[in-house]
């Protein structure tokens, strides 16, 4: 009985905390659906009345917004796919292949976590400028592929997989790559899903490097493009337009989390318990 009461109290606290956490998002959505005339008078309340979609229509009328959305999708998907491939290969090598200097190389990779992004921004910019690669998808994706956290996550996951599975595959004359591709990779789906979602989220919201390497409006990502619109349209279009921009940029991430939340929780639980 006491345990049931405790569980109900915990559930109630979680519901309250979730509601408090969602309030800012509901408020932003409300403001994006209110006419500017109403927003001038008051920004209170979470029920939009009267309602309008004019702010979203104005956002989509901006000619380059669909291109920015396409750029973000290409960059996020490309970065996610490449990160999953590189991190899983490196993680498997560190976890299962006993090569000379493995520990030293792993520590060197992990040292990348201690290097702040701002410290390498100038040399990175100069390098891509010398190669004349700015304003390309390659320049938007490539610098973000050096992901020590992804390598660490996959290494920890592969270390926890029983070696008996590999030994059984070796008895069937499976080579190293076939063991990785046919045995280890399917088992790592929860960890890969978690890493993929967080990588996609990071790529979608990334602002600092894209604003440096993308100097032509046609190559802006959605975060950079909407940021430029805030400066150009904020005074003329009002608060509702800014809130519509925020909703437009964050909606894909919210949908992604809702669809894959089971895998996120499962992946964190599995990798965190090893």
Automatic annotation (TrEMBL):
Q: InterPro entries this protein is in?
A: MetI-like, MetI-like_sf
List locations, semicolon-separated. Cell membrane
The yes or no answer to whether the keyword Nucleus is present is: no
* The keyword Lipoprotein is assigned to this record: no
Instruction: Report how it sits in the membrane.
Output: Multi-pass membrane protein
PROSITE patterns for this protein: ABC_TM1
Q: Which UniProt keywords apply?
A: Cell membrane, Membrane, Transmembrane, Transmembrane helix, Transport
Q: What is one Gene Ontology biological process annotated in the Swiss-Prot or TrEMBL record?
A: transmembrane transport
Any matching Pfam family:
BPD_transp_1
Q: Which residues cross the membrane?
A: 9-29, 68-92, 104-125, 137-158, 179-204, 239-260
Query: In what residue span(s) does the ABC transmembrane type-1 domain sit?
Result: 69-260
Q: Which residues form a coiled coil?
A: none
In terms of superkingdom, the source organism counts as Bacteria
Naming one, the record's GO cellular component terms include: plasma membrane
Protein family (similarity comment): Belongs to the binding-protein-dependent transport system permease family.
Name-wise, this protein is sn-glycerol-3-phosphate transport system permease protein UgpE
List the taxonomic lineage: Bacteria, Pseudomonadati, Myxococcota, Myxococcia, Myxococcales
């Amino acid at each position: 009985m006491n345990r049931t009461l405790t569980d109900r109290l915990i559930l109630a606290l979680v519901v309250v905390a979730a509601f408090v956490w969602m309030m800012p998002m509901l408020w932003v959505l409300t403001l994006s659906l209110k006419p500017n005339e109403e927003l001038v008078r008051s920004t209170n309340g979470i029920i939009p009345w009267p309602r309008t979609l004019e702010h979203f229509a104005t956002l989509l009328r901006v000619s380059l917004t669909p291109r920015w959305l396409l750029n973000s999708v290409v960059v996020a998907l490309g970065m996610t796919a490449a990160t999953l491939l590189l991190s899983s290969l490196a993680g498997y090598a560190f976890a299962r292949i006993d090569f000379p200097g493995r520990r030293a190389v792993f520590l060197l990779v992990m040292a990348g976590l201690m290097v702040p992004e701002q410290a390498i921004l100038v040399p990175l910019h100069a390098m891509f400028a010398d190669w004349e690669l700015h304003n390309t998808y390659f320049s938007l994706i490539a610098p973000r592929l050096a992901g020590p956290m992804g390598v660490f996550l996959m290494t920890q996951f592969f270390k926890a997989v029983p070696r008996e599975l590999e030994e059984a595959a070796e008895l069937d004359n499976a080579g190293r790559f076939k063991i990785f591709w046919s045995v280890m990779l399917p088992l790592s789906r929860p960890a890969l899903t978690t890493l993929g979602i967080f990588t996609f989220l990071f790529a979608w919201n990334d602002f600092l490097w894209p604003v440096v390497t993308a100097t032509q409006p046609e190559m802006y990502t959605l975060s950079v493009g909407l940021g430029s619109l805030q400066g150009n349209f904020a005074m003329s279009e009002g608060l509702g337009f800014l809130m519509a921009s925020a909703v437009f940029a964050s909606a894909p991430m919210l949908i992604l989390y809702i669809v894959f939340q089971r895998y996120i929780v499962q992946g964190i639980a599995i990798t965190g318990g090893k």
